[in-house]
Design a protein that fits this description.
291 residues; alpha/beta; Spore Coat Polysaccharide Biosynthesis Protein SpsA, Chain A; nine-stranded mixed sheet; two-stranded antiparallel ribbon; 11 helices; 33% helix; 24% strand; binds uridine 5'-triphosphate
Length: 291
């Protein structure tokens, strides 16, 4: 019988060098898009896909991320005292069930694959989702829920994919594609950051995955790949042929919030998607564009 998807790993141990100095004392994943930090979008998206247990892979200087999911007693008491009912309701709505978030520490950022391996005890023998919080997806059905649906149908590994310009394949994990069935493509190979002339396609993996626990055994070999890092893509590639492996051309728009331009674009797109903000934002944007 297919094991249900209930776990998610959130790797947040990166250095966030592209956002210095903002990320000097604050984790990148606490950067807000409109009024919510990136990490909260990831957790909300995963919960909407039925995920109940979370493991954050953290590093030095990441305590704000852990505090964010704690109950802020003093703040709540002050809000209650001042009759700030809306703000209080908002905090309570976002509260996590006790014990649903655990953390492990990646002492040295040796790569995404190494970060996932650090969560091996949490993963155990269960399938799990990975969400990289700096990738945001705006769409009607949350991206992880779309992946979960494919997992429920195939019982195998699933990664969210999107097309990238050929000249940018050296920034991403790229798919070698087999049979195509609508938005679902069979993965026959995976290469991390290939040069454009060597890339097997222009379909790149974005920061959303559903993986079988077997990936941990491959990660345990600690083989170094592109950039001398332990690459998740390389460990995933070793599962091809042993279990179903699909790429999903997900519905929605992805924003790379680890990149300055992607982050700014996300602010615009997410504020325009908010009925309370859209009219004003549209108005001031018009002024900037026309001036
Ligand atoms: P990035 O490639 O965006 O790296 O990592 P980064 O350090 O966060 O940011 P820059 O490039 O220096 O600006 C992708 C994801 O993998 C996690 C990051 O936290 C991010 O969610 N990661 C990466 C780790 O958890 N550990 C690592 O060793 C590397």
């Amino acid at each position: 019988m297919l094991k249900p998807l209930r776990k998610a790993v959130l790797p947040v141990a990166g250095l966030g060098t592209r956002f210095l100095p903002a990320t000097k004392a604050m984790p990148k994943e606490m950067l807000p898009v409109v009024d919510k930090p990136l990490i909260q979008y990831a957790v909300d998206e995963a919960r909407a896909a039925g995920i109940e247990q979370f493991c954050m892979v953290t590093g030095r200087g990441k305590t704000a991320l852990i505090d964010h999911f704690d109950i802020a007693f003093e703040l709540e008491a002050t809000l209650a005292e001042r009759g700030k009912r809306e703000a209080l309701a908002l905090l309570r709505e976002e509260a996590m069930p006790p014990g649903s978030i655990s953390t492990v520490r990646q002492q040295v950022p040796l790569g995404l694959g190494h970060a996932i391996w650090c969560a091996r005890t949490f993963i155990g023998d269960d399938p799990f989702a990975i969400l990289l919080p700096d990738d945001l997806v705006l769409g009607e059905v949350p991206c992880t829920a779309q992946l979960a649906q494919v997992y429920n149908e195939t019982g195998g590994n699933v990664v969210a994919v999107s097309q990238v310009p050929r000249e940018q394949t050296n920034r991403y994990g790229i798919l070698k594609v087999g049979a195509v069935d609508g938005v679902r493509v069979e993965v026959t190979g995976l290469v991390e950051k290939p040069a454009p002339e060597e890339a097997p396609s222009d379909l790149s993996i974005i920061g959303r995955y559903v993986l079988l626990p077997e990936v941990v055994a491959h990660l345990s070999q600690m083989e170094r790949g592109a950039g001398n890092e332990v690459q998740l893509t390389d460990a995933m590639a070793k599962m091809i042929g042993h279990a179903p492996f699909h790429g999903l051309k997900f519905q929605g728009r992805r924003f790379d919030c680890g990149d300055k331009v992607g982050f700014l674009e996300a602010q615009i797109a997410f504020s325009l998607a908010r009925p309370d903000l859209a009219p004003q934002v549209r108005e001031f944007l018009k002024n900037y564009v026309n001036s």
